[in-house]
Design a protein that fits this description.
This protein is mainly α. Helices cover 59% and strands 8% of the residues. A two-stranded antiparallel sheet has the order 1-2. InterPro entries: DUF3077 (IPR021427).
């Protein structure tokens, strides 16, 4: 059985800094199977990739760049939380 089969998101990763440097607006939900979370992260990053390509066309490039920034920030947060979950399972902290 793979490590991924037992792992779920930890809900420890926050993102979307606002206000003070230590203040974030969002936190990932705990308990999501990592396979589902990774699929979602892939979708977010795919959209961000498309948005960065749109910025090369000139129209609304600032809006596309900001949308890509937010999408990639969300995707990174999911991947960071999944990584934490997998490392905990690998270390034997979660079963």
């Amino acid at each position: 059985m793979s490590l991924q089969a037992n792992a779920t998101t930890q809900g420890a990763t926050t993102f979307a800094q606002c206000g003070k440097p230590e203040q974030t607006l969002f936190r990932l939900s705990a308990g999501v199977p990592v396979s589902d979370a990774l699929e979602y992260a892939s979708d977010l990053l795919s959209c961000a990739n498309r948005m960065t390509l749109l910025t090369t066309h000139g129209d609304n490039s600032e809006q596309c760049a900001m949308a890509a920034h937010y999408l990639s920030e969300m995707g990174k947060a999911v991947i960071d939380d999944v990584t934490t979950a997998l490392l905990r399972v690998e270390a034997g902290h979660d079963h």
